[in-house]
Write a structure and sequence with these properties.
Oligomer: single chain
Largest sheet: 10 strands, mixed
Strand content: 5-15%
Distance between the termini: 51 Å
Number of strands: 14
Number of helices: 19
Length: 527
């Protein structure tokens, strides 16, 4: 099947590179599929053969290897024979140049994208003229990246949504109507959300509420990611291992499935272990290095069963835009997720291109990040999802007595859209506070193990609905990077005076699945 939306020369050059080095197919940065080549029957068949030979361990492919594989399918072999495949393979291998692999890959994938756009009813006239059968502007088509093409399509859809799907007035009521009913509503369901991992922080910010946007910022290496994992497990894992009970217990704070969107780690080998280590209360690094004891391994296996039943979703979105985040948050809300973590707010090329296209303004980091946080707050309300996100800090936190929104990297104005905002900093990087507060720290006792000591401070600079209002409160706590678990010590104000903040306590959950034969059988079978 011939198709004008296909570059035969680029496809031939790409196939030549793959024959010289089939391992190129294993590079996740350059994914290729049969559909990328099937516009020319022989090309599609050669790609299938190359993939099969790669799986068989072949390091370089010649016509002889192709012949061996193709003969197992008479239909494939007839098509290859009719097209003098032996001479063709020799020619494309001779002309193949690995240095040009990325260029040929991009050309082939651009045409694949155009074909899928056309199949899905999306106009391609910005890129391709169906009358002439050529690129509308060849120079621009060659220079545009795949990411920019996708961003342009997203922008078209986003602009239409903004133009035709906007509810300017969400609701209108008469003030004072049915006040008694409103009071009864609050009495039956107080405006307090789900508990975060920190009972003290939960008290200060009135819990994690659906429709709210929380932001926890910190310098690089402050474990923002793992603290987000811990908070999400507290609302989205049906059970977790209790050190006090010596067994897995039902999570009394469970709210439903959750989602975790990240941008720079490997979901399987780096993010998922953090969830397993929290639920199992097992050291993250021991798991990743294969050093678990038999008992720890059993706990991690059971944690895996729990998380599987909990329906937690990990989503990798390195080149996100506001529109793509909305789509994913909407998908997760429809999946039944009341809470999610987006780790974390930062500027990337796709987001910048989207902002420039929609606003016709220069791409300034502060404007883009403010716009994104405004959108995130809107998505939280629109889809009734509680969202926790984060940002990096600029260097001013090192000089501030009480770090606040002025320390946020990119745009301090994002504070305006937050329902709660905090900054976390390692305790040992706040020497003055360590000295002022040392009288309140645990004292070692002779002959006893050294007591747990705090290693983090969380500064609450905004709490829109909290009972402490705009009072500056900081929480001194210990965070276990190995298990992503948190243990609060005490609170202080900006003058380092102790503040008595009651800790929101959860009713203890009972032993989880003590007689769950299905779960136990699965674990034993795996072991």
């Amino acid at each position: 099947m011939e198709n004008t939306l296909y570059d035969r020369n680029a496809a031939s050059a790409l196939l030549g590179c793959l024959m010289k080095n089939p391992a190129l197919l294993l590079n996740p940065s350059f994914p290729l599929y049969k559909k990328d080549f099937e516009c020319v029957a022989m090309h599609g068949i050669l790609f299938i053969c190359i993939r099969e030979l790669l799986e068989a361990g072949t390091r370089e492919i010649s016509a002889l290897e192709i012949d061996t594989v193709a003969k197992t399918n008479s239909q494939y072999y007839d098509i290859l024979a009719q097209n003098d495949y032996i001479g063709y393979i020799d020619a494309i291998k001779e002309l193949a140049n690995h240095n040009n692999f990325e260029y040929f890959y991009t050309v082939v994938r651009k045409y694949s994208l155009l074909r899928e756009m056309k199949e899905n009813g999306i106009s391609i006239t910005d890129f391709f003229d169906p009358i002439t059968g050529q690129a509308t502007n060849l120079e621009k088509f060659e220079s545009i990246t795949l990411e920019e093409m996708v961003a342009r399509v997203n922008n078209i859809v986003s602009n239409l949504r903004n133009k035709y799907d906007v509810r300017f007035v969400r609701n209108q009521i008469s003030v004072g109507e049915d006040t008694e009913g409103l009071l009864e509503f609050f009495e039956k369901a107080p405006a307090f959300g789900a508990c975060l991992q920190s009972g003290v922080l939960s008290t200060i910010v009135q819990g994690w509420n659906r429709g709210h946007l929380l932001c926890r910022s910190g310098p690089s290496g402050a474990s923002k990611t793992k603290q987000g994992v811990g908070d999400l497990c507290m609302v989205s894992a049906t059970a977790y291992y209790s050190e006090e009970a010596g067994d897995f217990v039902v999570n009394p704070n469970y709210q439903g499935p959750g989602f975790y969107i990240h941008t720079e780690m490997d979901s399987r080998t780096e993010v998922e272990p953090a969830f397993l280590s929290f639920v199992a209360c097992v050291e993250y690094r021991k798991m990743r290095n294969g050093l678990l004891t038999k008992e720890e391994r059993l706990r991690v296996l059971k944690a895996g069963e729990i998380l599987k039943k909990s329906n937690l979703q990990i989503i990798d979105m390195p080149e996100y835009t506001s529109a793509s985040l909305e789509q994913k948050i909407r998908d997760m809300a429809e999946f039944g997720c009341p809470f999610g973590v987006f780790d974390y707010v930062e500027l990337n090329s796709s987001l910048g291109a989207e902002f420039k296209s929609i606003s016709n303004m220069p791409v300034r980091e502060d404007l883009v990040l403010k716009s994104l946080v405004t959108d995130l707050k809107g998505y939280a309300e629109k889809y009734n999802v509680g969202i926790l996100t984060g940002t990096q800090l600029n260097d001013t936190w090192k000089e501030k007595a009480f770090p606040d929104e002025s320390c946020l990297s990119g745009a301090k104005s994002i504070k305006n859209k937050l329902d709660a905002g905090t900054i976390i900093i390692p305790f040992n990087q706040r020497r003055k506070e360590m000295e002022c507060l040392k009288a309140f720290l645990p004292k070692p006792r002779f002959g006893e193990p050294a007591p747990m000591m705090p290693n983090m401070i969380e500064y609450v600079y905004k709490s829109r609905f909290g009972v402490y209002g705009d009072e500056k409160v900081k929480i001194i706590y210990y965070f276990d990077k190995g298990t992503s678990r948190r243990y609060d010590f005490f609170c202080a104000d900006d003058k380092d005076k102790i503040v008595n903040v009651p800790k929101t306590e959860l009713e203890p959950g009972g032993i989880y699945n003590a007689n769950d034969a299905e779960c136990e059988a699965s674990i034993k079978e795996t072991v």
